[in-house]
Amino acid sequence: MSKILELKQRRADIAATVQTLAMQESGGTALSAEQLQQLDALKAEFDQLGAQLARLEDAERMIAAAAQQVDTLNAQGAPPAGGVYRASANDLEVLRVAAGLPARPYATPAQPTVKGASVARMAVALIHAQGNYRMAADYADKNGFGADVAAALNGGSPSAGGVLIPANMATEIIELLRPKAVVRRLGARSLPLKNGNLAIPRLKGGASVGYIGADNDIPATEQSFDDLKLSAKKMAALVPISNDLLDNAGISPDVEQVVVGDLTSAVAAREDLAFLRGDGSNNTPKGLRGWALPGNCIAAPAPATVDAAFLQAVEDFLNALILLLEGVDANMVSPGWVMSPRTFRFLEGLRDGKSNKVYPELAQGMLKGYPVGKSTQIPNNLGAGGNESELYFCDFADCFIGEDKALTIDFSKEATYTGADGKLVSAFSKDQTLVRVIAKHDFGPRHVESVAIGTGVKWGK
After folding, report:
1. What is the structure's pLDDT at 436?
2. Where would one find the signal peptide in this protein (predicted)?
3. Is-contact 193 232, C-beta < 8 A?
4. 47 and 191 together in one domain
């Protein structure tokens, strides 16, 4: 309530009290000495409030007189009667303070929403509640995590193996995987699994077409089809998060950004490993290396002195990989390269006899006109000598990821995980919390002819 309204309300209360006393006296009841003293005090306060109210109303009129026309209306000319005006901020505040009014608090801009923050908040609430889903839902509600987060946590049960992340929240996480997972980023298409399965028809054999003469029968023409069959494969990602970081959750969106970043990075890395080099055993997806036809795998030229002959050999090798797709009329909608960082740096640093870079477009992430993705999931220790790598060229628009849009999240403070050095690490001893994310998906190219792989790449070793 404004100060002017408060003063008017107080004056009305005083007037009502004075009227009550006056009616009492007019009814024949004499006023006591205390009531007479109260009446005099109320009259004095009423007059004082009237003077203060007059000053405040004068200040309001001065503020209105000092108002300035809105900039957009200045550009359009004088506004119509009843137009919108605003006063200078400094003038308004000076007049308000001079009139005894409190300064207006400035609005604080809302913090930008972190994409995928709902999943991070679910994890934080679950951890703070020590795995109790009902308490986690209550924590989320009291800390302003959102009604959707509280509702999702409230639907969890200990026997379900975690909390099911709703499809709308899971979709945000899946979208965040695209810039981090090289296979997704280069154009692989995502389709939902129906009851854990998906069949995508593909053309296996072309129709028989030919010319005929007079009175000859038209040859039978029939195309043969096959299916790319995808079935749900369960992937579990363990993400260690510092408890010190979790203590600050809810204070800054940066904490949510870190949690979401760790979750998506872990899932993206494991996806790329499966989608690139998975062998399809033990209920895992088969990657591009497993799908590639033997005839579509070409050995890379051995490293040698960088001279014209070697540069031509590298050029011929890259062209051969491209021709494997062009020669079978691959659609080439989203073709691209995937290589290890070692191979990328070798090609990026190649120079000809005049010290000019052979592939300068690599600085823009392109090679021979096609985008390049780097992935540490392509190892550099393959082959008998433990120093070989691979180079992939594929039409990624012809590759499909069948995935269940629902994710499951759970946590543990006592579990162990394998560290970067291959040794087991206890989350309890490190004062960490392990967050487990379970996703279900599968991967495959619609036409295996759209995959070409260079093997035995020893460049840059």
Report:
1. 84
2. none
3. yes
4. no
How many domains does one find in the chain?
2
Q: Is the dihedral of CA 282, 285, 291, 297 positive or negative?
A: negative
Instruction: Give me the sign of the Cα torsion angle 238, 240, 243, 249.
Output: negative
- CA 302 to chain CA centroid, Å, is 42
439 and 342 co-located in one domain: yes
Whole-number average pLDDT of the chain: 81
- Please tell me the pTM assigned to this model: 0.67
From residue 47, alpha-carbon distances to 15, 65, 93 in Å are 11, 27, 27
Name the residue type at position 300: A
pLDDT of residue 250: 58
Determine, yes or no, domain membership for 207: no
Write down which residue in 70, 100, 130 finishes a domain: 100
- What is the DSSP annotation of 211-269? ---TTPPPPP---EEEEEEEE-EEEEEEEEEEHHHHHTTTT-HHHHHHHHHHHHHHHHH
CA dist 189 and 442 (Å) reads: 12
Query: Once rounded to an integer, what is the mean pLDDT over residues 232-241?
Result: 86
Residue identified by tokens 């494969």 is: 233
> What does the block give as tokens for 202?
């593909």
User: What is the residue type of 277?
Assistant: R
The C-alpha atoms of residue 283 and residue 261 are separated, in whole angstroms, by 27
Segment 332-382, tens digit of pLDDT = 999 999 999 999 999 999 998 888 999 999 999 999 999 999 999 999 999
Tell me what pLDDT residue 222 has. Answer: 54
Measured CA to CA, the distance from residue 374 to residue 61 in angstroms comes to 68
Structural domain harbouring 46:
1-55+91-100
CA atoms within 13 A on the CB side of 239: 24
